[in-house]
Amino acid sequence: MAEQLVSVEHVLEKYIPAEELQEVWSVLYGRKLRCLELPGCAVDSASQHGFELKGYMFDAASEQLRKPRAIRIGLIQNKIQLPTTSPVAEQVNAIHRRIAEIVEVAAMCDVNIVCFQEAWTMPFAFCTRERLPWTEFAESAENGVTTKFCQELAKKYNIVIVSPILERDESHGETLWNTAVIISNTGAVLGKSRKNHIPRIGDFNESTYYMEGNTGHKVFQTAYGKIAVNICYGRHHPLNWLMYSMNGAEIIFNPSATVGELSESLWPIEARNAAIANHCFTCAINRVGTEHFENEFTSGDGKKAHHDFGYFYGSSYIAAPDGSRTPGLSRVHDGLLIAELDLNLCRQTSDKWNFKMTGRHEMYADELAQAVRPDFQPNIIRE
C-alpha cells in the first residue's frame, strides 16, 4: 500500500475537483509555479529510458539595477541498478550508465547544475554495519573513477555536478568520509564538502563507517551561483543550514537516503523551512526503491532481523526563499526534477522579511558559547 502510492500529488489530482485543486495547491505549496516547457527530445528520451521528468519556474520581481539571474538546476533520484550481491565494479558501472542517461536529458533541458542523491554510486549499505564489500565502493574524491566520470560529463555538457560519494581519503590513512564532490562546468574539481552530522538511531550508526565531517560549511562559487551541500542527516539541524547561508549560499542541496517509517512525515517540512529561514533555495533529493542485502541485520527498534532498511520514498523537491515549492517527484520511480530559478529572489525575500537583519546572532553566539562549557548552568529563574 504505502509502497504503491506514487505521490501525494497524484492522489490530490485524482480526488479533488479541478475547481478546488488550484486553491489546495496554493495552501500546500505557496504561489503557483509555472511549468517549464521542456524540449520534445528530452520528454521522449525520459520516456524511453523509463524515468519521470518534471520542470517548474520560480520567478522574481524585475529590478531596475539588477538583471534577472536565471539558472536551471536538476535533481536526480534513482534506484540501484543491480542486486547488491553483484560484483562491486559492475554495480558502479551500471549506476554510471543510468546517471549518464539522465544527465543527457538534463543537458537537453539546458540545466546548469545537477545534484545526485547521497552515496549515489552504491547501495545504502551503512545500515548493515558490515565492512566488505561495502567499503570497496569508497573512492578518492579527487582521482576516483566516479569523479573522472563526472568530470567528463561536466565538460561535455558545460554543467556543474554535485556528486555525493563514499570517499576514501588516501592522504589521511585511507579514512572514509561521506562526501560531496563539486565539479565545475569546466571539468575541474572545485572542492568537496563532508557530512557534518551522523545519525545514531537505535543501532543504526553510520559512524561505524565514517565520522562527522571536518570541512565546515563551505560554499562554492560556480559559474551559475553560490552553492552548498548539506548531506542527508544534516537537514535535521537548523544551525547547519544557517551556517551555509551565513557563508553566502544561494542554493543548498540536500542529497539524502531516507526511508518511509523513519522520516517521511519530516521530509516535506525541513528543507522548505530552511529555505524560508535562510532566504535561499533548497533542494531535497532522496533515492527510491528497496535494497535487499544477503545477510540479515537489526535496526535497534525491537523488530526481528531483516534484509532491507526500508522503502526509499523519493519525493525529491525544490523550495524557494519565499516558501513556495515544487511538487515532488514520484515515490516509486527514477526521476529528474528541473527548476529554473531567478536567484534575485534570495535578496528580494531577505529585504522583505529581514530574518538575518533581525537574527540577533551576536546574542546567540554568546549564549551558545556559554552553553557548551562544562560548567554551564541553564538560565532558569525560580521562585
Automatic annotation (TrEMBL):
It comes from Eleutherodactylus coqui. The keyword ATP-binding does not apply. Pfam families: CN_hydrolase. Keywords: Cytoplasm, Hydrolase, Phosphoprotein. Its EC number is 3.5.1.6. One of its GO terms (cellular component) is cytoplasm. Belongs to the carbon-nitrogen hydrolase superfamily. BUP family. Residues 71-343 form the CN hydrolase domain. Catalyzes a late step in pyrimidine degradation. Converts N-carbamoyl-beta-alanine (3-ureidopropanoate) into beta-alanine, ammonia and carbon dioxide. Likewise, converts N-carbamoyl-beta-aminoisobutyrate (3-ureidoisobutyrate) into beta-aminoisobutyrate, ammonia and carbon dioxide. This is Beta-ureidopropionase. GO terms for biological process: beta-alanine biosynthetic process via 3-ureidopropionate. Pathway: Amino-acid biosynthesis; beta-alanine biosynthesis.
